[in-house]
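I'd like us to work through together how a protein chain folds, taking it slowly. To get us started, please write out a protein record for me. Label the sequence line and the structure token line clearly, so we can match residues to local backbone shapes. Once you have written the record down, we can walk along the chain together.
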Amino acid sequence: MSPYIATQSGAGNTPNNTKTLSTSWMFPYLFVVSFAGLFSIVALRKLMIIKYKLTYPSGTATAYLINCFHTPKGAKLAKKQVGSLFKSFGFSFIFGAIQWLVARDEGCGFGSLHTFGAQAYAKRFYFDFSSTYVGVGMLCPYMVNISLLIGAIVSWAIMWPMIEEKKGDWYSAQLSATSLHGIQGYRVFIAIAMMLGDGLFHFAYMLVVTISSFTERGPPQNDYSDEDDHDKKIRNDYFLKDQIPNWAAVGGYAGIALISIIVVPITFHSLKWYHVLVAYLIAPILAFCKSYGAGLTDWSLASNYGKIAILTFSYWVGLENGGVIAGLASCGLMMSILDTASGLMGDFKTGYLTLTSPRSMFFSQLIGTAMDCVITPLVFWIFNSAYKLGDPEGSYPAPYGLMYRGIALLGVEGFGSLPKHCLRLAIGFFW
């Protein structure tokens, strides 16, 4: 949304297609869009947790971990884990301080070590000894790390240098390296094509899995059967004890939608009240689909739904009427609803297995969401003040900012705005 990112895209850099990032509008925007997901499908918790017995792998794993802590062996293990946590934190903090002391200027020190030589460093192939990235790599599955490594080698070592040799033929040599009509356009739109292809595949796959799961299920059965063990009956009774009235869920969602219809168009002038109304009418259906899919596979498709929202609303509004901002704002609205709805259902699964009151879980989510609406903009403001976010040559290039803006530009401008042969390459990588 920011004008700084808009200048890099080289298109849509008009006042009605940019918005200065400020906490003055972030606070009200987050407060009106972040709570709707909690009310959207809360009435279906009995259906998804007890009747369909969805797994919600992350919620189940969390529940087993919590239950493990309440055993003598688990308590001993927890102490070791906490000790390892503080040791790792201390090492990372001290190493970060050493890096800061050693680095005398930009491009020197541990953060910019020419691991593979000067030419490779110019192509951004070097090791920066970032404890954050090492930690992320330890958390991510090894297949994710391997995929990232292969993608980096194929793109930065092979594809981008080959395309840069076509400068002056495929795209103008006068364009900056950050223009979407130049080399950056190939980077962004090929990546978008791959992400959309992968996302649509998983969307279709989850749709097939969901439909087949519904068709394979027999007629509705009683919550209890003779084969149910004692623990399951206790969990079912406890889970159904603290009911959240359906009228409260429906009324809460309708009230938040009404407030959003008033507030969101004031914050983003390109979004009209009927755009917001359509988004809130569609969101519960998508929230159910996402929550059901997450319950089966633990996959999150919120970003894919968000990309579809960008393309839909940006095309609907149009470039002249601020379609870029409209698409990005609707994406944030949609992803917020879907993520919170799916997260709440996963927490209900955790509460079901740990004998935690569903009503307590719901109100805890309300409190946590309210805190998040305050803390997140403040953290972003501090971070944005300390670093130049979005700088392609800086430490935090924020590539997703330019990528999502590129999707919005694609929605308002169409394929004719792409550089030469970019569409063919994107289609090839899409499949």
Summary: The chain has 18 helices and no strands. The chain has a mean pLDDT of 80. The chain has two domains: 3-52+178-430, 141-170.
